[in-house]
Known about the structure:
Number of helices of chain B: 12
Largest sheet of chain B: 7 strands, mixed
CATH architecture of the largest domain in chain B: 3-Layer(aba) Sandwich
Strand content of chain A: 5-15%
Structural class of chain B: alpha/beta
Radius of gyration of chain A: 21 Å
Number of strands of chain B: 14
CATH topology of chain A: Rossmann fold
Strand order of the largest sheet of chain A: 1-2-3-7-6
Helix content of chain B: 25-40%
Number of domains of chain A: 1
CATH class of the largest domain in chain B: Alpha Beta
CATH architecture of chain A: 3-Layer(aba) Sandwich
Distance between the termini of chain B: 45 Å
Oligomer: heterodimer
CATH class of chain A: Alpha Beta
Shape of chain A: globular
CATH topology of the largest domain in chain B: Rossmann fold
Structural class of chain A: alpha/beta
Helix content of chain A: 25-40%
Number of strands of chain A: 7
Order of helices and strands of chain B: EHEHEHEHHEHEHEEEEHEEHEHEHH
Distance between the termini of chain A: 66 Å
Radius of gyration of chain B: 19 Å
Shape of chain B: globular
Number of helices of chain A: 10
Number of domains of chain B: 2
Strand content of chain B: 15-25%
Amino acid sequence: MASTAAPSAVPATLPHGLSREQLHELYYFMCLTRSLEARLVNLYRQTKVIGGLFRSLGQEADSVGSAYALDRTLGDFLSPLIRNLGSMLVQGATPVEILRQYMAKADSPTRGRELNIHYGDLDRGFLGQISHLGDMVPVMAGVTLSFKMRKQARVGLVYVGDGAMSTGTFHEGINFAAVQRLPLVIICENNGYSYSTPTHKQSAVKQLVDKAPAYGIPGIRADGNDVLEVYGVTKPAVERARAGGGCTLIELVTYRRKGHAEHDNQSYVPKDELAAWAKKDPIDRYRGRLQETGWATEGELAAIDARIHDELDRAVALTENEPLPVADSALDGVLADPPRAPLEWYRRLDG
Amino acid sequence: MAEVTYLEALRQGLWEEMERDERVFILGEDVGAYGGAFKVTDGFLGRFGEERVIDTPISEAAIVGAAAGAAHMGLRPVAEMQFIDFISCAYDMLTNYVATARYRAGLPTPMVVRGPGGGYVRGGPFHSQNPEAAFLHTPGLKIVCPATARDAKGLIKSAIRDDDPVLYFEHKYLYRRIKEDLPEGEEILTPIGKARLAHEGTDLTIVTWSAMVFKALEAAEKLAQEDGLSVEVLDLRTLLPMDDEAIMASIRKTNRVLVAHEDTRTGGVAGEIIARINDQAFEWLDAPVKRVAAHDVPLPYAPTLEDFVLPQTDDLVRAARWLAAY
């Protein structure tokens, strides 16, 4: 595809030690996140998505930029929350898996047991979250405790939102991790709302990062809609953790441009607020920056867009008519031993 | 043979597993330099070091959550609740996270949460609880409640080796009161899910566990001497998964059964056991199944009050006589 933009004569110096290919990859993952969610909206409207649909529109930069700071070749590990589809894709989750999860397919990673992006893979290094906010912080403290005990140079990253930071498990987990100087980076994705509750009703602190000193750990606040800034603050925190420097709390300021889930009409959100944040769209900003700096040509970006379109066409075609799980597989795998729960007596009756 | 207390047997079991398997580690409040509130981990820090004997903040949810995370990664954590009463602070983490991990996400979670429970010690409402009923209802957990020194050792070792999360509820009244000769050098592994016949009998069965086993044995002796009754005492040892077959086998022999526990009556484990008996042995019964449990009140402190609220040996004797005469 021909380049239509007019890049500056000499490309700007590449940021944060990233290569051109890596800068393109950041763009790819942000766009993949957004496009995959757009496909899911279609499937939701066709009632093929069985449960709720949770969007991360406008938050792609904070997920992708932070997860990209991990080193997957070293076995770094992350624990996403519901707006971190982008983080999971960076970590190796695939659109096919996500589609199967949302549509409760038999071959979904959780075999139809769990919803949406609630799944994980120990080999690729991401953990299946539960709905009880804050609980993943102690769990990730345990994951990173294992790294420390085994003297592995691995780092963990755990996401919380402005709402999850109000929970007791968040406090217990970050405090324990800080005391133990565990290699854990805690990302607070402050998107302005937890369901309908604005951040100022979650906490009386001026900014959520102000909580970091209370745990004796460094805190950084950054623009969550600037993928390079997100990467730029997360990467040093990850490397500090890897070097034995302990935890960092990073507050990424962003905005949830859709409701809590697809059913939520955001009646509680001022219209001008939505419009103002739409102008700060992280993908538009990054796309513009890539072109202004000459880090990418219009042709290269268009090729990425086309690749995503094609990839998602194939993923949807593969998964949308797959079968649901066989009903009685519900009894399998509660425990390692016994491997199957008993069938209730009334199901064994004749007639 | 060496005579060891229930507490020492538990301690030996933990020690042996830590010697055997370097993946095993302990975390909890005051477990390190202090050796635990009851000295279960006394000396462990010196032998195994700070990395495997971890003093934590007062954070039961973090203790259990961190144990789960480490277990996912292949370690074998043993989390101590200083008193088992505080396990309720980790209820969410245990029931929502730990118990569902394998089913919802295929996550191996081999971990043990243990701690001292039980009354008869003037501990009042927050140092005397028996929380088994709160967790019996949660698929994905196992629950063991040793009564003897041998099982204190054998069940902690089996729990640590088990691939599922195990709640190990020890009884603090038994810690230093129960002594038993345990052969040195023998590997004691009590199977999880198997009851123990504590005393054979033919006239009626008392199904129970933990410290109540000894009250049942006292009652059996008194009933034998004063009434000529032959009472069978079944020590369940594991509540989840429950040994239904052992319960029904005893009922087929005695046809009368009393279910006894130290916990309060309403919603207690006895109700579940009686429902199973109704399902599986109704036609073998010569009398209604009765239960002996604590009165439905928080456990009070004063000796007069505590002794009144908790079931005593004479309560078992009275109930057994009623059942035998039915």
